[in-house]
Specification:
Structural class: mainly beta
Order of helices and strands: EEEEEEEEEEE
Largest sheet: 7 strands, mixed
Radius of gyration: 13 Å
Shape: globular
Number of helices: 0
């Protein structure tokens, strides 16, 4: 059974940084695509960043130049380094992996506030 567990969220001031982690219960080699999504209160879930098995990445325009997605297959862990955080980045961040179907983590809260 595939399980994804996010960690690393929290409260940070504007301009600060956080690194989110997503630990998979199975080998990540099976996942063609993995990604981070977020959902703010009253808004739809949106793609933040995606990474393929070949380490090709793409980002939402709103986070380009500030966020970096990466994956360490040896550790079965995906990361999202978030720098220069803004209040509008406040949301629950979800890890996603795709292998025949989509798998989701439970989410981790990121709050950017002074």
């Amino acid at each position: 059974q595939v399980q994804l567990v996010e960690s690393g969220g929290g409260l940070v001031q504007p301009g600060g940084s956080l690194r989110l982690s997503c630990a998979a219960s199975v080998s990540m080699f099976r996942f063609k695509n993995m990604g981070w999504y977020r959902q703010a209160p009253g808004k739809q879930r949106e793609l933040v960043a995606r990474i393929t098995s070949g380490d090709i990445t793409n980002y939402a325009d709103s986070v380009k130049g500030r966020f970096t997605i990466s994956r360490d297959n040896a550790k079965n862990t995906m990361y999202l380094q978030m720098n220069s955080l803004k209040p509008e980045d406040t949301a629950v961040y979800y890890c996603n992996a795709n292998f025949i179907q989509d798998y989701w983590g439970q989410g981790t809260q990121v709050t950017v506030s002074s």
